[in-house]
Amino acid sequence: MTFYLHRDAFIELAESAVKEFQSTGRVYRLPESPLYESADARLDLYSDVLVVEFIIDDFYLPLVYITTDNPEDVDDTCSKGGVPVDRLEPKWYVCSRDWN
């Protein structure tokens, strides 16, 4: 629900995080915001896919932006360590991490 209420802001945050990551090549922590508890952009080590992850209320149910729009490309968020719960729109997912 939070994504839909603040869709434009999340899209802008994800796009700026992708640009920042691409210019630095390092994990990029997004600035504090009332929209989320924490957020970062990082490259998935196994697939070279860029992921922007927002922890809103629950660490185990992050809002995730995936540059390839394929949750199978991402380790430990939407696949291989968790599963997609809901595809909100292209490249945007709510995922469920494995509790282990």
What would your notes on this structure say?
The structure is a single chain. With 100 residues, the protein is α+β, with helices and mostly antiparallel strands. It has one domain. 22% of the residues lie in helices and 32% in strands. A six-stranded antiparallel sheet has the order 1-2-3-4-6-5, covered by helices on one side. A hairpin with a 2-residue loop joins strand 5 and strand 6. The longest helix is centred in the first third of the chain and has 18 residues. It is globular and about 30 Å long. It starts with a helix and ends with a strand. The mean pLDDT is 87.
Say how many strands there are. Answer: 6
| Low-pLDDT segments | none
What summary fits the major beta sheet?
Answer: 6 strands, antiparallel
Estimate the global geometry from the Cα principal axes.
globular
Average pLDDT number: 87
N→C terminal distance: 27 Å
Computed structural class: alpha+beta
Proportion of helical residues: 10-25%
Number of domains: 1
String of helices and strands: HHEEEEEE
Please report the number of helical segments.
Answer: 2
What is the spatial order of strands in the main beta sheet? 1-2-3-4-6-5
Strand content: 25-35%
Please compute the radius of gyration using only Cα atoms. 12 Å
